[in-house]
Design a protein that fits this description.
The structure holds 2 protein chains of 2 kinds. Chain A is mainly alpha-helical. Chain A has a domain at 66-95. Chain A has 5 helices and 1 strand. Chain A starts with a helix and ends in a 12-residue tail after the last helix. The mean pLDDT of chain A is 78. Chain B is α/β, with parallel strands linked by helices. Chain B has a single domain (35-126, 139-191), classed as Rossmann fold (3-Layer(aba) Sandwich), CATH 3.40.50. Chain B has 5 helices and 5 strands; from the N terminus they run αααβαβαβββ. Chain B has a 5-stranded mixed beta sheet, with helices on one face. In chain B, strand 1 (71-79), helix 4 and strand 2 form a beta-alpha-beta unit. The chains are: A mainly alpha, B alpha/beta. Chains A and B meet through helix 3 and strand 1 of A and strand 1, helix 5 and strand 3 of B. Strand 1 of chain A pairs parallel with strand 1 (71-79) of chain B.
């Protein structure tokens, strides 16, 4: 008799604990899930989700660095001079100024 | 005379060819060249984060509440610094600490998980019935590890001060509760 009583008490406790946990859940949980699911395109969302897991997303900014800026300007000048040399080699008449300055051959 | 010239030119060739030197060094050796983020920073970050995450009370609390080991999945780390920093270098160290320590369970995520699912789908057609793996038996994670990397740089003429802050958070997936926050701060003074 005592065993039955203890079992019943234990079952009641278990049921009430489970019920308490269930009752704490928002009653509109399923509705919220459906709304969330419909909000996003499932295929695209799955792909995006997989692509962002365990990876580094680069959202970097450019910091002000005087030395780097100086080096970039230097490189730009080098590139410009190189392009100019190539252009002169390719079109010597047009790109090279004559002894009287730039002329296009019409005068 | 010709032989001598040949010998001298060969010597010159060998001498110029040996300018490059490569040597193996210990992986825990600190070598700072440009002052940018390097392997030493990643190693220091990993060491500190591992110490913090394994020593904090969230682990004991989870064990006492549920009686089970927590299951963690690694999420996204956002790099908002001014340099390219690959976070996988130190998140992998964290994962290793979880698996080797045995107190935290780890589940795969991202593209690797997709690949495993593809293989499982393939098994449904090609594997024998006794060895075929079932769907719907994956372990659901309790927590997600996420992070961000921030940096501040101050430069004047040839001097630079660079500050990095790496923040990692562990969030309960069901309740959104942040159960652990760890960070690593690194400050460098660079003189060119």
């Amino acid at each position: 008799m005592r065993t039955y009583f203890l079992t019943a008490v234990f079952a009641c406790c278990l049921f009430s604990a489970a019920f308490a946990q269930q009752s704490n859940q928002n009653p509109r949980a399923q509705q919220a899930y459906e709304a969330y699911k419909n909000q996003v395109n499932t295929d695209v969302a799955d792909t995006d989700h997989a692509a962002t897991m365990g990876v580094t997303i680069d959202n970097t900014y450019e910091a002000y660095d005087p030395i780097q800026i100086k080096e970039e300007r230097r490189q730009e000048r080098r590139d410009f001079r190189r392009q100019l040399r190539l252009e002169r080699a390719r079109r010597p008449i047009i790109a090279n100024p004559g002894p009287w300055g730039w002329r296009n051959g019409w005068w | 005379m010709t032989r001598l010239l040949f010998f001298l030119s060969a010597l010159l060739f060998v001498g110029t060819a040996c300018n490059r030197q490569v040597q193996r060094i210990e992986t825990d050796t600190t070598v700072d060249l440009s002052g940018r983020w390097n392997d030493t920073d990643a190693r220091l970050t990993a060491a500190e984060l591992i110490t913090e995450i394994m020593g904090m009370p969230w682990l004991e609390r989870h064990m006492s509440n549920t009686g089970k080991r927590p299951v963690v999945i690694v999420g996204m780390v956002e790099n908002k610094s001014h340099e390219h920093i690959e976070a996988e270098v130190f998140t992998k160290e964290l994962e290793k600490a979880f698996v080797r320590g045995g107190r935290v369970r780890l589940v795969e995520g991202g593209q690797k998980r997709e690949q495993i699912r593809r293989e499982r789908a393939d098994q449904q057609n090609n594997a024998s019935q006794s060895t075929m793996k079932q769907w719907g038996l994956e372990v659901g994670a309790d927590y997600m590890l996420q992070g961000s990397i921030n940096s501040i740089m101050d430069a004047y003429k040839r001097k630079k001060v660079i500050y990095y802050q790496i923040d990692m958070t562990l969030t309960n997936i069901e309740t959104n509760e942040i159960v652990w926050i760890g960070d690593k701060k690194i400050k460098k003074f660079v003189k060119n």
